[in-house]
Amino acid sequence: MTQPATAPEIIIIPKAKKPPKMPIWVPMTLVTIALVSLTVVFLTGQDAASGLGQAGWVSAVIAGACVLGFLITLVRKRTFLGFNGLAYLILAVFFVAIGAAGILSETPVHTLQADAFKKEGNFEQAIVEYRKGIENNRSLNIADSYLLWGNGLLKDKQFEKAIVAYRAGSAPEYKGIRQGDLARKSIGQAYLEWGLYLEDFEQNPDQALIKYDDTVKDGSNSEAIDKARYQAQGIIFQVGDRQFDNGEFDKAVATYQSAIDLYGGVQADLKPYISKAYLAWGKMLLTQGDYEQALKKLDLNFAYGNDVGAYNLAIVDCYTANGKKLLAENNYSDLIATLTPAFTAYGRYDSRSQLQGLLGEALMAQGSSAEAAKDYPKAIDNYEKALTYVVNKVDVTSDLKLRLSNLHLQYGDDQFNQQQFETAIKTYQRSLQYYPNPPLTAQFRTNLARSYFNWAQQLEKNNDFQNALDRYRLILKDYSDQVDFTKQASDAQPRVLLALANKLNDDKDYANAITRYQELVDKFGITSQGQDAKNKLEASQDVTVTVLDRNGKPLSGLKVKLDESWTKTANGFEPKGRSLDFTTNDKGSFTIKLVPNKSWMMSYYKNGSYSVAAYGDSPANLVKSVSLRATSSSQSVLLP
């Protein structure tokens, strides 16, 4: 198939248009707009530094626009420079310079502004400016501003804000900077001054105490801490004083103690407060009748200084009140048991003799009950004790002594009837000591003489002849006015003396027996007892004498001579009177009949001559045999 013929394509190429010329007023308008914009931006900044910074950045943007204008002009004119291009280029450089100047000057200007603010006392704004300012000394300036800011707030009594400022100024980034350290230390001082203000001006000790506690907890200022503790203790003591005034003594004591426990100090500082609290506490319990607890609170370990005297008086009052209660209940035993040691300890403080009086009454009442029951020992014991407590009461003392005298008399009679003569005598004597009333003296002496006589008889019956003899003689010596008893005592003497001598003789106490026999002969020779004693002294009997050598061996076949008496001469002893010769048997003994009260000297043969062996008295019926140790020298021996 044949294609139809087509007409030829005609291409029309349009003629290139020339770019329009940029009017000269365009760059100038840009400059005007830029300057107006910069002015507006600068003026709308927060401050000069911010305005400069903002203007700098706007200048930079405008400089960019100028560069763009320069490039557009360059493209359109296809030439490197033209008037407009040159204008854009110059403007770009100009605005770059302005922008750089604005941006670079913002930080120093912030610092300058901060210095000005700090000088004006606008520390908050100064801190803001320092943070935007130059880095050099920034931390120092900020810490210093916080410190000064806090000081100003503290001066204006804005304590909480001051503490916030000090805390900000003592942040870790400011550690080691003097102003930062001062700010840290000032926190404690701020708490302290806050507490002082609350305590002194607002009269709010509870809140002040909280601030003092905050001072201590903060721990940044040792001087402030010491002062805070002192002030806190003062508040605590005031609280304790209020509790004390309200009669809450237990709370007051605990509060006073907490002042030391919480805020330090020495226990001795508490003594005046503890002392007055326990004293008042004890007195309150005393008025309530709780004597036991009152005495516990009045323990002298709590007393301090001048309070000691008040404690002692209160203790006396406490024991007195308790004693009166027990006396009213007739509970004498408990009263005496309680008040006796109390009087010993505190009697010297009892100026009104209250304890003495109560003890005296209780003892007299107890003694009266015992007297009614004829319990003489108990009655006497109570009355005698009562005497020690009523010494200042003449009438009571006289009555007690009369009671005691009568009681001893009755008790003595009771002992006499029980044949307890020795104790009866002592009791009668005590009776006379308590009440030496002349009309009663004769009766006392009769009772005493009778008791001594019956006692002597009792001793004689029990073969205690020496003590019996002593009692009879005492009656004769001290009670000559008691004729009946002295006659009987005199008649009893030879009888008792002979019985005593015989007893000594039976007990082989020959020397004392002979003494008593001789006394009988000398004093009562005409009596039957005297004659009996004389016969005993003159009687003779066999006496066996045994002679031993130095080793205790009997000497048999020894020739012995006894001389009735010897006379001492310059040459020794010479025999006088009778002489008797004996030879010892195989047992070393010989027997001789001797008469009492004769002196003999025994000799024995030595080397063909007599040697003196021994000398002595020979009471006949005292020793049945005597062992002699034969020696070359003489020795004294009691021969039978």
Structural account:
Keywords: Membrane, Repeat, TPR repeat, Transmembrane, Transmembrane helix. This is Tetratricopeptide repeat protein. TPR repeats lie at residues 405-438. The chain has 640 residues and is of the alpha/beta class. It has 5 domains: 25-108; 222-303; 306-435, Tetratricopeptide repeat domain (Serine Threonine Protein Phosphatase 5, Tetratricopeptide repeat); 437-538, Alpha Horseshoe (Serine Threonine Protein Phosphatase 5, Tetratricopeptide repeat); 541-636, Carboxypeptidase-like, regulatory domain (Immunoglobulin-like), CATH 2.60.40.1120. It is built from 23 helices and 8 strands. It has helices at 25-44, 48-77, 83-120, 123-132, 138-155, 159-169, 178-200, 205-218, 222-245, 249-263, 271-287, 291-297, 307-328, 332-346, 354-372, 376-389, 394-417, 421-434, 438-461, 465-478, 483-506, 510-524, 528-538; strands spanning 541-548, 559-569, 572-583, 589-594, 598-606, 609-618, 625-629, 635-636. A hairpin with a 2-residue loop joins strand 5 and strand 6. The chain is elongated, with a radius of gyration of 67 Å.
CATH class descriptor name of the largest domain: Mainly Alpha
Report the average pLDDT across residues.
76
Report the sheet with the most strands, covering strand number, pairing sense and barrel closure: 5 strands, mixed
Radius of gyration: 67 Å
**What is the helical fraction, as a range of percent?**
55-70%
Number-wise, the strands total 8
What's the end-to-end separation, in Å? 212 Å
